[in-house]
Amino acid sequence: MAQELPIRCYIVSSFLLKKDNDNYRVLLLKRKQTIQGAWAGVGGRIEEGEKAWQAVLREIKEETGLTPEKLYSADTCEQFFGIDRDSILIAPVFVAYVSDNAAVTINEEHSEFGWFTLEEAILKVSFPEQRRILRQIQEEFVQRQPVEWLLIDID
Fold first, then answer.
1. What is the predicted pLDDT for the residue at 47?
2. Which distant-in-sequence residues (6+ apart) come within 8 Å of 26 by Cβ?
């Protein structure tokens, strides 16, 4: 009998967008702990009793001090092989729009942050899956009006 790899989904991932003149910028955080030194979006664990979208709102608040004006499902999942756990990890991805004057306050998990154009962010992130997701966000949330059915009622 073949050995199966477990598939785990206990984390969420998100990218925050803010308007900058006629374009958007995406927030990236430089990690101090897990995957130290890597630039990434906001993410973390889903706590017991939370829905994925509630977890992402909590993580955004904890990691950046921000509260999104709008939250969307990105209609995709970040997936990667967790070498340390010998399993496939899947994280639903969300896109959050924040105020164009949003003031970021990073927590102890990060050493720095920056608002980058999507093109800059694609070059800055470490993993191919993140680049794929950022390209999808650029196509579906920056170059087009997001599909209304992906909007999450956070009120």
1. 97
2. 15, 16, 17, 41, 115, 116, 117, 118, 121, 134, 137
Write out the two tokens for 104. 């970021």
Strand ranges inside 21-118, DSSP E: 23-31, 39-40, 42-45, 70-82, 87-97, 110-117
How many C-beta neighbours within 10 Å does residue 117 have?
15
Q: Which residues contact 89 (CB under 8 A, 6 or more apart)?
A: 7, 8, 9, 11, 79, 80, 81, 82
Predicted TM-score (pTM) of this structure: 0.93
Q: Which whole number is the average pLDDT over 73-77?
A: 97
Cross-strand pairs, 25: 18, 117
Q: Is residue 2 part of a domain?
A: no
117 bridge partner residues: 25
- What residues pair up with 49 in beta bridges, in sequence order? none
Would you say residue 1 lies in a domain? no
- Placement of tokens 């997936």 in the chain: 79
Total domains in the chain come to 1
Domain hosting 122: range is: 7-152
